[in-house]
Amino acid sequence: MSRFDRVRLVVLVVAAAAALASCTFRFGAREQGAEAVDVEQRSAEAASGTPSASGAAAAPAPAKVEAEAAPAPAAGPADGIVAYACPDGFTFAARILPERAWLFLPGEVRELPAAPAASGARYAEGGTDFRSEGGEVLLQSGATVHSGCRPDPARTPWEKAKLEGVDFRAVGNEPGWSLEITLDGATRFVTDYGQSWYTFPTPEPRVDRIRAQSWYQASAGGHTLEVLLEGRECADSMSGEVFAVTVRVTLDGRDYNGCGRALF
């Protein structure tokens, strides 16, 4: 990486830290995605006569979010998201149901109804055709065709987190852990390879723009979480993937080191 690229990286991380502090990470495609993945849930509520939260007066935010070691939460509307990578370098995500599919493409979300297919599954409408068979998918939009696309397990949790409104995500190894920060909600730390879940209210960060660092500290349920985000290049110790932010998480005095990035 050239010196210019390194300087630009630090500048971008400082800008990201400032945006994190002011809670400005909200983009149209992600908002569209959150609405799209919630369609099934709202439809079920309408059919059962149970009013949805969006149709009622907004409830006040909980005063406290407990932190505890617990099993994984129940599946939500974004849990069916799968990220795909195509041989031509194109990437996207999709949520596939028997009756319809949502495609999360760069800058837009498309909802497609199921369509007749000789084999496998097919969803099509308005010049967009999405086919799935034998572990591979084909996506055609007009004259553009992406074929031989396959699920990308490494990217899937990142796409899922983005659609759930998470603003920053980090991962680490030995033991495997992940951190998800939602600025106007909760911070979730999962460790012991997914066996232990801790949830805290997201605090206001302290930001040092000179050092390109942000600190978070929260306590709940008898546990204390500290997070340091540093604008320094970081390579995952298992995959070798390079991230823009170095992360240190301290839970009850134990340090976990890893890498992360903001979810635009």
Automatic annotation (TrEMBL):
<feature type="compositionally biased region" description="Low complexity">
    <location>
        <begin position="44"/>
        <end position="60"/>
    </location>
</feature>
<keyword id="KW-0449">Lipoprotein</keyword>
<dbReference type="InterPro" id="IPR036328">
    <property type="entry name" value="MliC_sf"/>
</dbReference>
<keyword id="KW-0564">Palmitate</keyword>
<keyword id="KW-0472">Membrane</keyword>
<keyword id="KW-0732">Signal</keyword>
<protein>
    <submittedName>
        <fullName>Membrane-bound lysozyme inhibitor of c-type lysozyme MliC</fullName>
    </submittedName>
</protein>
<feature type="region of interest" description="Disordered">
    <location>
        <begin position="40"/>
        <end position="60"/>
    </location>
</feature>
<feature type="domain" description="C-type lysozyme inhibitor">
    <location>
        <begin position="84"/>
        <end position="144"/>
    </location>
</feature>
<feature type="signal peptide">
    <location>
        <begin position="1"/>
        <end position="21"/>
    </location>
</feature>
<dbReference type="Pfam" id="PF09864">
    <property type="entry name" value="MliC"/>
</dbReference>
<dbReference type="InterPro" id="IPR018660">
    <property type="entry name" value="MliC"/>
</dbReference>
